[in-house]
Amino acid sequence: xxxxVSGGADSVALLVGTADVASELRLRVxxxxxxxxxxxxAADEARSVTVLAxxxxxxCHVQSxxxxxxxxxxARAREAxxxxxxxxxxxxxxxxxATAHTASDQAETLLMRLSRGTALRGAVGIQEAxxxxxxxxxxxxxxxxxAFLAEQGVAYVTDPMNADPVHFRTRxxxxxxxxxxxxxxxxxxxxxxxxxxxxxxxxxxxxSLADAAFDRLRLEDGALDxxxxxxxxxxxxxxxxxRLVAEVDAAVDExxxxxVQRAVADGATATLGRGYLLRATSGRVRCVRQTPAPAPAPGxxxxxxxxxxxxxxxxxxxxxxxPSRPPAGVYGLGLGEGTRWPLTVRxxxxxxxxxxxxxxxxxxDVLVDLRVPAEVRATRPVVTDAEGQVLxxxxxxxxxxxxxxxxxxxxxxPPGSSIQRTAAL
Length: 425
Fold this sequence. Notes:
Elements: E1 2-4, H1 9-25, E2 30-35, H2 42-55, E3 60-64, H3 73-92, E4 97-98, H4 103-116, H5 120-123, E5 129-130, E6 133-134, H6 142-152, H7 168-184, H8 189-217, E7 224-225, H9 226-231, H10 234-246, H11 254-266, E8 269-271, E9 276-279, E10 284-289, E11 301-303, E12 309-312, E13 317-322, E14 331-335, E15 343-346, E16 353-356, E17 359-362, H12 363-369, E18 382-384, E19 390-392, E20 408-413, H13 419-424
Parallel strand pairs: 1-2, 1-4, 2-3, 4-6
Antiparallel strand pairs: 5-6, 7-10, 8-9, 9-10, 11-15, 12-13, 13-20, 14-20, 15-18, 16-17, 18-19
């Protein structure tokens, strides 16, 4: 185990306490102390950690991170710190990094997130453990830690940054938590930390249920079934939609989720970040580009007779006129003696109409009824005869299974399939 020790009370207690039980628990323990390069005192603090580790018989590694002060320094320092600790853990062949976060840290984190507005996931706060990382002091308060060090007679340093009121966490630590404890009549930090542990258990269960629902509702084109999404309980629906939005790296915040949920309920569209829209139309919920680059209209494919074949440019569809019914994975249309050759495969055009049992209907209306997403309608192939009559919408209408006596069959292989590969098999 690699102990992350800064020289402050919490991490010094982690070092001392772990060293005392390492032999009994058969732990291989080493210490890491990092100089972020932000304070002159950090070098002296690193030396004090080295001395204490040597006194406890533990190897100690000192690393300088060389950070510069400026905007986002806290986040940059945290990222650099964990990256350095993980790299050292791997290099030394140790099972986990141990940090000295306490119940007081957990309570502060919880209050900070609640004040900014958070869902249950944010209330989880600091995780007790994850892959390669453990926090063994998370159930102990800072008061417990300081009492332990006083009993052991071990000194520690105090980082002046922890007392700087410019930081939100400092204000929560110095002002909010003491005031809340006075109002309650008891120390609230352990109870807030206990709530975070329970929230973590609840969040883990809800997340697993949401993952299962997401996988169940996922359609072949990557969209979600809109009816199924609407039928979910609100807690699951919110998580499922958050996962869908996160797939396009859009912000998953309260305002965005509110817009998304309204769009799903109304069968409408919501604006996301990063140039995306969420559309809940045509029976599907999906994220699409807000301003896609206009694609050139695909050219037409002309099929003169049996044996003719080719691809419809720009769509990924392949077509072939064959003497037999198509195999699995390829759509087919039976062609009888009355077929008016040549056949043309193209995309939709203004004024296209489809002849159906009840008369003729606009092709646009048929595509809407068939729940074809608006963003892909322009790339769906349309098969017409020599007189321009729409005969077929491959994979949509009429049914893929044709019955009766036919002289030939028009095969249609969708994107990702191939007539050539099918014939070879």
